[in-house]
Amino acid sequence: xxxQKEHFSSRLGFILAAAGSAVGIGNLVxxxxxxAKNGGGAFLLxxxxxxxxxxxPVMIAEMAVGxxxxxxxxxxxxALSNNDKLWGAAGFIxxxxxxxxxxxxxxxxxxxxxxxxxxVTGNLDYLASEKGFGEFINSPYLFAVMAVVALIINFILVAxxxxxxxxxxxxxxxxxxxxxILMVIFVLTLDNAMAGVKFFIIPDFSKITPSVINGALSQxxxxxxLGMGILITYGSYINRDTNIANSAKLVAITxxxxxxxxxxxxxxxxxxxxxxxxxxxxxxxxxxxIFTFLPKIFLALQTSIGYIxxxxxxxxxxxxxxxxAITSLVSIIEVPVSYLITEKGxxxxxxxxxxxxxxxxxxxxxxxxxxxxSFFTEFVDYAGSTHSFxxxxxxxxxxxxxxxxxxxxxxxxxxxxxxxxxxxELSIGSDGYVGSWVEKYVNFSLGTFIPxxxxxxxxxxxxxxxxxxxxxxx
Length: 474
Ligand code: PHE
What we know:
It is globular, with a radius of gyration of 22 Å. The protein has a two-stranded antiparallel ribbon. It has helices at 2-5, 11-22, 25-37, 41-69, 73-80, 85-120, 124-128, 132-136, 141-158, 160-188, 193-201, 210-223, 230-235, 244-273, 286-300, 302-344, 348-367, 374-377, 389-427, 437-447, 449-467; strands at 380-382, 385-387. The protein is 78% helix and 1% strand. The protein is an all-alpha fold. The structure holds phenylalanine (PHE). Phenylalanine binds next to helix 2, helix 3, helix 12 and helix 16.
């Protein structure tokens, strides 16, 4: 049982690793676009409230369950429920979810790496051209890129918790912060940048509708990597003298600060490219923004800083997002890895090769579903249109199932493991916890309104995505 003995070397190492998981494509692209479309400062306010009122208690509970048991979701739910089969099944969804999320997150990470490689080799103009993205996602060359990304993941994870996950986060996260700040400074010097900043920050409360509120909560949940078993698994590697509630707060603050800062990078860039742009016209998906819209913006910079300058800016951006994606991907894959090690007795090496092989095959299918193979491209019909294999995995596992897992966690912690046990675990490493208002708030909210709200979000998302019908009347 080697994993149980593996630990992060310090509180900072743990916080950086958890922040590495949380900070991803959702922060760097998804958040700025959502904010711009949905009322700027008004969206920021709603989102910020959700992070602290709803997500933070869930995050604290996940970490506590992990540290208490030293296990991933299946082992943790079983250990704290006297081996109850139903809770074991809930834990299993908590391991299956990241396994499937890894599939599509890998596809996007591979694209990012491919874009980085093409930009560095002087092909930014190709990527910005009309045919660029469409040809790129159907190129056989992607499978070579996929092999390289799989090797990078394997290289990090095979080294284990301290020498792999923690070390990667300690190198990539500070690099990411520096690159992000440099990009913001650069972007703010562009013409018309302030129009973007204004659009991002000035509140427009008329845009806040029930469906925007639903979306803000899904975004917050996803952004903090909740409902994926990740913080349970990472929690299983924290030392007993770590103050969980405070660490969780720092992770949430870092994640939110990065999302906010990313808005100061993306929106001024978009507005300087096209001062007349209406953010409502930006596509809903982060994917098309990164891969089709941003390359055009970068290329347009060549008039002021030349083609090489523009390529350097683009490459820095892709490297930044690639780092964010790798530290997230590592955390996603660690959950099933830890499951195979602790439940099935695999060595870390064997667990990794099993996973990279199985998830790898599904990733290949997902990659083929953008036109290369029609079986995967036209996989299934629902909500009035045809969806590819990638779409199905994305729709089920990206944001739909996360609130359901969050709901199960709230019930589990409050009514099966019980609140006094949660308090006891959280008081370890935090002398003043018991009796504090944080304790009262965490225990009250997890047992009452948080499960009700996340269940509502789950049901509404299912109705919208799979049946084309919104329970909120939108
Ligand atoms: N939180 C990451 C983001 O904001 C994505 C992610 C989700 C990572 C779930 C791990 C698990 O992009």
